[in-house]
Amino acid sequence: MQQTVPAQAQPLLRVENLQTHLYLRRGVLKAVDGVSLAVGTGETLGLVGESGCGKTMTCLSILRLLPKQSGRIVEGQVWLDGIDLTRLPEQEMARQWRGRRVAMVTQDPMTSLNPVFTVGDQVGAPLRAHGLASGARGVRDAAVKVLRHVRIPSAETRLDDYPHQFSGGMRQRVVSAMALACQPRLLILDEPTSNLDVTIQVQMIELFRELQNDSGLGIILITHDLGVAAAICHRVAVMYAGRIVEVGDVRTIYRRAAHPYTRALLDSIPHLGVRRERLASIGGQPPSLIDPPSGCRFAPRCAHRTAQCEREYPPEIQLAPHHTVACWHPLHEQA
User: Fold this and answer.
1) Whole-angstrom distance, CA of residue 215 vs CA of residue 213
2) Domains and their CATH numbers in the chain
3) What is the pTM of this model?
């Protein structure tokens, strides 16, 4: 388990009060509602929470890859290397930033790979688009180098294969190669190991850790698997219903979780050697993001709620130098 942020970490990404709305027929859905976070150089931040809590939408907002008709960033800033990405023209964002300085690995590699093009064509595409390689031979040599970088055996011959000829783990490596081809400063990983068996998960985690150590890459890991987050992340941000409710380093979050939601997520993890008749679960459902409650959004599902929780959303409280929580009644203060 990685427990401390690297000493050399510098502010690479800073998101401040990000608000992203989806304009739907039934109303305005506040998918991201005031999210602030930071990622340092050489640091991995885990973004965890239940499905639908806003993790992926937060990262798509960073990349400005929202649905054209319905998605819109209505407030907030996204600073990458000192530049506010929300103010850039779309053409500049596409040519100089998206894929070049910030890239994303999606959850299912088959949604990112075109079955009618070879792996070499697809890995070479971002290199051509950003002018980092030219000519058939130059693009091919650069693609081979990238495939070797993500540990694909016999890269020279596999370059001419099609996605269906690769295993699930190898396809995930190909998608990672496409994202890493232009040597971005920030890499977003959206559930990169969820469709892989345990052995391949370990290999992918080791691969991302090695790539980060080699290049100082900043990483945002989107996951609902707290075991994977513990293995690769330096810090963890817990999201619930469009907002971040707790942030801390891995050791603190796993040993002294302060928000009832974070504690409930940890309690639902099965532990090797511990016999339970029934796994712990979180009762109820997350609130509607079209008409969210005015108070704490976790209050209806929280055993520690009070009338104040239902009336007002809690402010962010600093519990330790690297540990914040948005809760009226932090749990470890009660311990």
Assistant:
1) 6
2) 11-101+184-334 (3.40.50.300), 114-183 (no CATH)
3) 0.90
